[in-house]
Amino acid sequence: MNLSPLNSPVLSVRDLHVAFGDTEAVHGLSFDIHRGETLALVGESGSGKSATALSILRLIEREGGRIASGEIRINGTQPAEITTLGASQLRALRGDRIAMIFQEPMTSLNPVMTIGAQICETLSLHLGLRGRAAHDAALTALERVKIPDPERRLNQYPHELSGGLRQRVMIAMALTCEPEVLIADEPTTALDVTTQAEILKLIASLQKDMGMAVLFITHDLGVVDEIADRVVVLKDGCKVEEGFTSTLFAAPNAPYTKELMAASPRLGEGAPVPLNVTETVLRVRNLTTAYGGGLFSRQSAVAAVSDVSIELGRGETLGLVGESGCGKSTLARSIMRLVEPSAGEIELRGHRIDGLSRAALKPHRADIQMVFQDPYASLNPRMSIRDVVTEPAFLHGLVDYQGRRDLALDLLSRVGLTSDAVDRFAHQFSGGQRQRICIARALSVKPKIIVADEAVSALDVSNARRITELLADIQQRDGVSMLFISHDIAVVERVSHRIAVMLKGEIVETGPTGQVLNNPQHAYTKRLLSAVPRLDRAQAVSGTSGIRSLAPALSAVIALNGGASYDRTLDEYKFDGY
Question: Which residue numbers delimit the ABC transporter domain (predicted)?
Fold first, then answer.
């Protein structure tokens, strides 16, 4: 790629200042993106990445922000200064010349419109296509992103598709008008490693075919290392460093960049030493959980979890890994009796809890608590933090009303939050702080087991490391056991004494973490490991475009699937309803 001065940038941002009320979120940011180039914006939550992306499309006003000053210019055959465009001009620009892929496709797609109707809406708005012409163009868009059985997908709704397929639909919609610039805002954060690898490969392939510029926003430095030509590092709304990916990652200058790289998990860094377990706190035997079926159902029952047996020792962390739809979360919810198993036994601290009535189960619920992926969605926005973190203890009769404040202060202190947090509300905290609040709530009943279901997947690398270190400290201090569910295998390695690998509702491999990761026995485990992005400067090639070192991993994935795309394999065993 030629980045000489003669090759004018497709998009130029100059001295951008973005504010929310009196608070400035972006301070004097400048960068260029050239045709066919991938520029990555990296930084922690609150660094200004998404505010910058939304400003480029002038969507920042819808989020309560404003462009205080600066220039955002798109060049090409019809140069335009985006900050001065009117409403009709912006509608023509969005989706046509500049398109965006958002982090969570389920909230970005209209749940009451079919996939075909949503794509056709874009085609009608920008290209004037209607009827059969729009249908054929929508079908071509799905075929371009390699969605299996595209004709059937046009008539389906978003909830009927897996996460990987929904993200492909978002990409198809973004590329229908062949934009000059594609903004990808954390498009793979919530995806498992093999689906992520497929999506990254797809974006790179389409970028090469269309020659578009890509602004890729992520907190995953391994992904940046794989796909980006250049990197801009943001901290507190300011650019602290910029350069070619290979050069910057090999020798970062800014202390903040060094901190980010140090916090980024790397597969192979080592795992905790397996414990000499003297007490088993959880024993699951031949557990099966099925969805569907029944007298009035048109579909036969599908086993989301099939004949699973696991054990968890006191003070031990068992990591549970596998792709989206493999049954990880269903297993966790079945163990907690949030969904009812179809068969099998669940023994908690020597007591069988499968089959217990709701009333009989209540005393046992204090022994096992859950920390969910999205802390904001799992916190009541109308309750003060005092009430949020002490509610489980209050419901279990472990504290009276007068004692809730003192307990809240103690719990918040244990998770590293100051006393002034006690009277605030969930929306007043960052994502990392909210996850600490969720952990404090789980600790309020002194549980013996914490189930962490993708508890750090939505957090940036620094906050994710702080949360995992906090959980490790709690485990060492209180002897709490953990079932740690994640699609990030490098994070699982860092925290888990043992690992269980799940495929199509079954455990296909289990053992000490180091043993499983260093010498995997099952082909599926090898596939998972081959797809993990690596932050490895030794293999980087300076100044090259697209996914540099992911091709061997993707070849292995495709070969194991018999040449089919991964999402086709995923869709064959996707279970509706969880």
Answer: 11-261, 282-529
